[in-house]
């Protein structure tokens, strides 16, 4: 057992941390046996993973030894293990709050997994505590034991890589890995708005909603299940996000932090348990961040994922830019100006209008008059823009718009949060909204802004304050 632990394959990204944890498990529960086997995920993909099996002691009137099997993902300890009961032929599975019909174990500890607070020993202790409240197995009569063989066969096939889904794909069914899949992380109002908007625009073949909240489905998530929106799957399992083209992050911490810095730090702590897991399952995805504050959380996502800067994008000022262009065209009848008009910089009060070209006049006098007129029109549009809030459904539509450009490789220009270092004399690693060409690989190109001293000063000021804030965070 110790030899197997110490020879953990190189695919495990955080070998030293994982080995240390497994040693502690082996010392505390010496009956556990370790092995490498093939695990088949829900989408049919397979991976060789370390797993350990054994029994945990449970007191429920009498004393029982409950057999379990834990699969350790190669992004451990930043992603929780996958846990199953491992019943023998004379044991039946008692479905309940924490166990489904096929023996998969669901616990609050797994849902709230966050390194370094969460550990395998802590998980097993909670498992024992929950099993002592509700025993997950019961003894079968001899005739019931015969019917149990089908279930045990299914559980065995998971390790052998022969699920029904894989069989269907081999006989001509569509391979889900070829789908345009989008995952939305977070089942609050914004997450559900994103799911509905993406589904309405028919952006993807499948949309996965990762619900990381505690307890059973409730509110909008329950309504999505009741009314069965086509091609939408709701899950608490990170593995269902595998091979997504775009992963949308909408989660925000609901803690009781008193200061703005503490609120952001709570979000950072939340992301530490999410970003490594989703980036592990979708290593070629574009991360699209809608969590607040979007500039900081996009930076955090970039750092935690180790993805190239082009594939980590914040929703930024896309919604404001689309509204700005619409107002110029439809309300102020300045269509010529609208095509080059953008809202850039930082979300909120510090956003600023800018332009990507100025072909308004051939001579200097005409250019000055045209720019003065343009400034007046822009100021009027900005005044109207101030009265427009950003509700969940409007941000959801903006997210769907961005996802559409990425998944369909449209090469369309959007004002999104991207790494601004090197632009407008910004020397720090901060994310600000700039007009970018978006395609399947994320940001393909940053479109050059007109040289406007007011805009450059505003961007540099935003970059400075964001950088100062980031320096105070614990990543």
Describe the protein's topology.
Blueprint: H1 2-6, H2 15-28, E1 33-40, E2 46-60, E3 62-72, E4 82-85, E5 91-93, H3 108-111, H4 120-133, E6 137-139, H5 142-160, H6 164-170, E7 181-185, H7 189-200, E8 206-210, H8 219-227, E9 232-235, E10 246-249, H9 260-272, H10 275-281, E11 286-289, H11 294-305, E12 312-314, H12 318-331, H13 335-338, E13 341-344, E14 352-355, H14 364-386, H15 392-407, E15 412-419, E16 431-439, E17 442-446, H16 453-471
Parallel strand pairs: 7-8, 7-10, 8-9, 10-11, 11-12
Antiparallel strand pairs: 1-2, 2-3, 3-4, 5-6, 13-14, 15-16, 16-17
Helix pairs in contact: 7-15, 9-11, 12-14
Features:
single chain; 475 residues; alpha/beta; Ubiquitin Conjugating Enzyme; 16 helices; 40% helix; Lactate_DH/Glyco_Ohase_4_C; UBQ-conjugating_enzyme/RWD; L-lactate/malate_DH; UEVLD enzyme
What is shown here, in short?
Pfam families: Ldh_1_C, Ldh_1_N, UEV. The chain is α/β, with parallel strands linked by helices.
How much strand? 15-25%
Quick one: how many beta strands?
17
Number of helices: 16
- What integer is the average pLDDT? 82
In the CATH scheme, the class of the largest domain would be Alpha Beta
CATH-defined superfamily of the largest domain:
NAD(P)-binding Rossmann-like Domain
Q: Find the CATH topology of the largest domain.
A: Rossmann fold
Q: Which structural class do you get from the secondary structure elements? A: alpha/beta
Radius of gyration: 26 Å
Low-confidence residue ranges: 159-178, 359-370
Q: What portion of residues is helical?
A: 40-55%
CATH architecture of the largest domain: 3-Layer(aba) Sandwich
State the strand order across the main sheet: 9-8-7-10-11-12
CA(first)-CA(last) distance: 34 Å
Biggest β-sheet description: 6 strands, parallel
Total number of domains = 2
Q: What form results from the Cα inertia axes?
A: elongated
Organism: Donacobius atricapilla
Protein name: UEVLD enzyme
Domain UEV: 1-141
Catalytic activity: (S)-lactate + NAD(+) = pyruvate + NADH + H(+)
